[in-house]
Amino acid sequence: MTTTMTGPAAGTTEATEASEAELEDLRATVRSVCADAGGIAAVRRLDEHAPGIDAGLWDTLGRQVGLAALGLPDAVGGIGGLAEIAVVCEELGRTTAAVPLLSSTVLAGQVLAGCGTAEAPLAEVAAGTVHALAVAAPDGVWRPDAVPVGVTWQGGTPTLDGIAPFVLDGADAEALVVAAAGPDGVDLFLADPRGPGVTVRRVPTLDLSRGQAVVTFTAAPVRALTAGGEGTEVVTRALDVAFVALAAEQLGGAQAALDMTVAHVRDRTQFGRAIGSFQAIKHTCADMLLQVESARSAVVRAVRTAGSPEALAEAAAVAQSWCGEAFTFVAAECVQLHGGMGFTWEHDAHLYFRRAQSDAVLLGGAAHHRERLAGLLSW
Q: In degrees rounded to 5, what are phi and psi of residue 231?
């Protein structure tokens, strides 16, 4: 990879745009590594009752290939920007890869990059150390007026109290970036998940390839990353990048589910002919293709807004308003068109269905993003 970027993906600094050839080389590299790791079948190696990270795959992708530094500032060895993030997430979505790119590099990494005083932890993110972001309100979305963790100061040291839900890859993280409400507004703090006053509890999830945790803080000493209520803007801008990354992942999963379905209906015969020749099957596949291509258009449009925070916010909301529902539709039809075997544990269709259902509410459902879009477009 030869692409470079002079600032975080969410920033306003100009990035050196990657050529189509460079992006395709990056895509081919990620696809090859995931295939060598076993593709979607690698998910089956994970513990069904404790979803987590595929450490071996993350070591290869994150550390050896260098994707842990994707979209981060040059100062910490960052590479690429929003276009590269989208390409990589799309490929990871094809195999529902259990790696912390979204949770650590994109979510926590973009927030740390926006803090401006977090170069040391940001360098750790770029090196592949897993960080998790704890900012969600009890309903699972980012709401600055409903942050569930509070901060108090004792002798100049900030301490946190509260319960942070829906912490993506929180049980596997070595550091936590936490939003907490204080007298000046919402600020950001760095916490040790194994430190005093911090309890991390892994929770069961539908998606076997993506773990979540609930983190409880009880007078937990932490390090301040922002002051004066600056955390709200930092998180909001970072999440716009994450929304596009998630949309790209949903696109990749939807495309893979469509490809799997088309291959099946071509090969499966009934009454002496391929079931794909039946009109009802053709119509369903056409509907699936429409959903996938519309999702692709939304992602491409969002990537092209990089460099303009206002345009990115609107395009990210559009992408999330569409891509989650598109992936859910395609994954459900994939199961249906595979017939009885599509419902079995042995078949891969249910793995896409699980990821689609999980992703559809991960950073707020389509209704939430449409509401946000309405606010962004109001005069």
A: -60, -30
Cβ within 8 Å of residue 54, ≥6 positions away: 37, 42, 45, 46, 97, 98, 99, 209
**Are the CB atoms for 211 and 50 separated by under 8 Å?**
yes
Question: Are 200 and 171 spatial neighbours (Cβ–Cβ below 8 Å)?
Answer: yes
Residues in the chain: 379
Q: Indicate the burial class of 39 (C-beta count within 10 angstroms; 0-12, 13-18, 19 or more).
A: middle
Query: In this structure, are strands 131-134 and 175-182 parallel, antiparallel, or unpaired?
Result: parallel
d(CA 376, CA 379): 8
| CA dihedral sign, ordered 181, 140, 247, 253 | positive
The encoded tokens of residue 97 equal: 């890869």
Query: Strand 157-168 to strand 175-182: parallel, antiparallel, or no bridges (unpaired)?
Result: unpaired
The structure tokens listed for 258 are 């469509």
Instruction: For residue 43, give both structure tokens.
Output: 């998910």
Nearest alpha-carbon partner for 8 in 86, 146, 132, 112: 112
CA distances from 322 to 110, 243, 299 (A): 23, 11, 10
Tens digit of pLDDT per residue, the chain (379 long)? Answer: 433 333 467 543 334 467 889 999 999 999 999 999 988 888 887 766 666 789 999 999 999 999 999 999 999 999 999 999 999 999 999 999 999 999 999 999 999 999 987 788 999 999 999 999 999 999 999 999 999 999 999 888 999 999 999 999 999 999 999 999 999 999 999 999 999 999 999 998 899 889 999 999 999 999 999 999 999 999 999 999 999 999 999 999 999 999 999 999 999 988 989 988 899 999 999 999 999 999 999 999 999 998 899 999 999 999 999 999 999 999 999 999 999 888 888 899 999 999 999 999 999 999 999 999 999 987 5
**Which residues pair with residue 153 across a beta bridge?**
158
Place of tokens 């990115």: 312
Q: Which residues contact 18 (CB under 8 A, 6 or more apart)?
A: 3, 26, 80, 81, 83, 84
Kindly give the pairing relationship between strand 175-182 and strand 185-191: antiparallel
